[in-house]
Amino acid sequence: ALHLAEAGVKVVAVADQYGAVHRPKGLDIEALQQHVADTGSVTGFAGADPLEAQALLELEVDLLVPAAVEGVLNESNAHRIRAGIIVEGANGPTTAAADAVFEQAGKLVVPDILANAGGVIVSYFEWVQGSNAYWWSAQEVDERLEARMLAAWDGVTATAAGRGLSLREAATVTAVQKVAEAHQIRGLYP
């Protein structure tokens, strides 16, 4: 939520394992962070109204980022999801049944294997630095991460457009192609 707010996104709701909070005019994310640091949860935040976590998923918003657990967007709630764009921050938050509903409704779903690849990429950067006795500043890591993520986005969206695929299908095709190419060049590793 902090990164989205810093990028100029109006964040109107946030949830954790204990509950959710909502403020249609936008949450003060820094104050919410301090509240979480003080109390251990978003619940009880004075700058917002309490909300059931399931209700958060169904708010009328432009962008929904399910970023915690698997399967929260499923056949029982998919028809009530009003966000036009869903960016999967968690691993597998959308079931196949929900994905089909979203595709039919024309929602843009940025799949987990693309949307949350940043952690794996930065882990790779750590390995590269450790293996080669490099040290990159946080800014350099961020710049390299942004370049990789944008290149991945460009590749996946080009594959989707060129082949008439969803972003999920295109991301999977792209990933399998990269593994197949690497396997062909170097064989099985190690």
UniProtKB/TrEMBL annotation:
Q: Which domain of life is it from?
A: Bacteria
**Keywords on record:** Oxidoreductase
Q: Which InterPro entries match?
A: Glu/Leu/Phe/Val/Trp_DH_C, NAD(P)-bd_dom_sf
Q: Where in the numbering of this chain does the Glutamate/phenylalanine/leucine/valine/L-tryptophan dehydrogenase C-terminal domain appear?
A: 1-187
Q: Mind telling me which SMART domains this protein's record contains?
A: ELFV_dehydrog (SM00839)
Name the GO terms of the biological process aspect: L-glutamate catabolic process
Q: One GO molecular function term? A: glutamate dehydrogenase (NAD+) activity
Q: What is this protein called?
A: Glutamate dehydrogenase (NAD(P)+)
